[in-house]
Design a protein that fits this description.
The protein is mostly helical. The protein is built from eight helices and seven strands; from the N terminus they run H-H-H-E-H-H-H-E-H-H-E-E-E-E-E.
C-alpha cells in the first residue's frame, strides 16, 4: 500500500441471525422435558431451585441450556457478549414471569425483534450459532409447534374429562347450572300458583300463558349437565302422575321423554294437573333424580 493511500475500514461483522418463536419453542420443550424430572424430588420447593440453577448455570456458561445446544442457539447480551451469572439469574427469574403471564411473555418473541419478555428485562437476545442448517431449524420449529399444540390439547382433554383444576371448574359450572334450573323451576311454579288464583282455580293451558308481566317476564331455561340449555316445555297427561305425596303427586320418571326442558302436566282431568317439573330422568350432583324436585 502506498503511503499516501488511506487505509480502507474493515467491513462490519455480519449480524448473527435470530431464531424465530417456533425454534425457540422447540428448544424450550427439550429443556422443560429435562426439568420435569425435578418434579420427582421429594422436597417441596426444591424443584424451583433446580429450575433457576439450571437456567442460570447453563446460560452463564456458554449461553446454552441443553435445549438451546440441541437447537443450535444461544443467549448473548445486546452487544453480542457472553452472559454473566448476574444477568443469567435475572433472565431466569424474569422467564418465570413470562410463563405465569399466561405465557404471553414468550409470545412476544413472535413479534417485535424476536425477543421475549425476559430478554427485554435482562437485556439479552437469542441468536443462532454458526453452522446451523435449514433441516435442524425445521426440526426445532416442528417441536415448537408441538410445544404449543400438545399443552392446549391437554387442557381441552382435562376440561372434557373433569380432571384436576379444570374438573373443579367444570363441577362449579355444573352446580351453577343446576342452581339456575332449580331457581327457574321455582319461578314457574310461583307464577303458576298466582295464575291459578287469578283464574279462580284453573291452571294455564300452556306454560306460555305465564309469560305476562303479572307472572314471569320470560320462560326460564334449564341448564343441565346431561342436556343442552333450553327453555322448551313438553305437555304430559295422566300417565306421569305417580303416588300422592304431601304436596301434589310424584312424577313417574319412567314415563318422561327426557327432553332436558320443562315438563307440564297439562291435562285438567289428571290427578297431577298443573304440576311443573324438570323433564330429565338423570340425577343432579347431589344424587337426587330431577323429577323429584
Amino acid at each position: 500500500m502506498k503511503d499516501n493511500e488511506a487505509a480502507l475500514p474493515e467491513p462490519p461483522a455480519a449480524e448473527p441471525s435470530r431464531p424465530g418463536f417456533w425454534v425457540r419453542g422447540g428448544a424450550l420443550l427439550i429443556d422443560m422435558m429435562i426439568l420435569s424430572l425435578a418434579l420427582l424430588l421429594p422436597f417441596y420447593g426444591l424443584g424451583y431451585l433446580v429450575y433457576f440453577a439450571y437456567k442460570t448455570i447453563f446460560t452463564a456458561n456458554g449461553g446454552q441450556t441443553p435445549g438451546k445446544m440441541a437447537a443450535g442457539i444461544k443467549v448473548v447480551t445486546l452487544a453480542g457478549e457472553p452472559v454473566g451469572y448476574g444477568r443469567a439469574l435475572g433472565r431466569a427469574l424474569s422467564e418465570w414471569l413470562s410463563a405465569i403471564l399466561v405465557a404471553l411473555g414468550y409470545v412476544i418473541a413472535a413479534f417485535s425483534d424476536k425477543r421475549a419478555l425476559h430478554d427485554y428485562v435482562a437485556g439479552t437476545r437469542v441468536v443462532y450459532v454458526d453452522g446451523v442448517g435449514a433441516g435442524r431449524k425445521a426440526v426445532f420449529a416442528f417441536l415448537g409447534v408441538l410445544a404449543v399444540v400438545v399443552p392446549l390439547s391437554t387442557v381441552g382433554a382435562l376440561g372434557a374429562l373433569g380432571i384436576g383444576g379444570f374438573g373443579k371448574f367444570k363441577a362449579l359450572s355444573v352446580r351453577s347450572g343446576e342452581g339456575a334450573t332449580k331457581g327457574g323451576l321455582g319461578s314457574l311454579r310461583s307464577a303458576s300458583a298466582i295464575y291459578y288464583g287469578d283464574m279462580e282455580g284453573r291452571y294455564p293451558a300452556s306454560l306460555e300463558a305465564l309469560i305476562d308481566p303479572r307472572y314471569i317476564e320470560a320462560m326460564p331455561k334449564t341448564k343441565l349437565a346431561d342436556h343442552k340449555e333450553t327453555d322448551v316445555w313438553t305437555a304430559y297427561g295422566a300417565e306421569v302422575c305417580g303416588a300422592k305425596k304431601e304436596y301434589g303427586h310424584e312424577i313417574d320418571a319412567t314415563k318422561l321423554k327426557d327432553t332436558g326442558g320443562w315438563g307440564y302436566a297439562a291435562d285438567p282431568g289428571s290427578d297431577c294437573w298443573g304440576q311443573i317439573f324438570v323433564d330429565c330422568t338423570h340425577e343432579d350432583t347431589k344424587g337426587t333424580p330431577w323429577p323429584e324436585y
